[in-house]
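Morning - protoporphyrin IX containing FE inputs below, output right after.
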Amino acid sequence: MQNSWMFLGIESLIVAVLLLGWYFGARRLNFNIHHLVVYTVILAHALVVFFWMIPTAQEISNWVFSNPIGNLRLVLHFGIGMVADILSIALAVLFIFRRDMPLSILRRARPVMITTLTLWVIAYGLGVVNLLLRYL
Ligand code: HEM
């Protein structure tokens, strides 16, 4: 329970840094800021997901999937969160190989980046709502 609030704080900080990275990095085509933010955020988030969210998901999965409609918010959180995580890692790998982001790649990557950021924020929102409804 106390851990949940601590991880909520960490995830909130991650989303804030991500949005700042989008505003100051992506929107202004400053790829140094953008890539630095993406790598930092993905690393910090991966630690939370691997050491907290996945073990917790395993613990509660029997209960969650015994009533998937009743627990739809959690099911959506797992699903959307997983897609956002996979897309973000794929993009981070792309940024490692194409640091300069030529226009031809940027054009194709842009919709994927926007989708990833949107799914990330939705997963975050669902996480917050789940936590608040559970404990408040
Ligand atoms: C972009 C991806 C994700 C974001 C932004 C995110 C964010 C959050 C937030 C803000 C919370 C509430 C704080 C907390 O309880 O610690 C949370 C809880 C949780 N997340 Fe995620 N999450 C993501 C991906 C995932 C994935 C991929 C899984 C598992 C497959 C997962 C499983 C969980 C679980 C089990 C909880 C606790 C649920 C509860 O006890 O109510 N999350 N997440």
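Note: DSSP finds four helices and no strands in the chain.

O.
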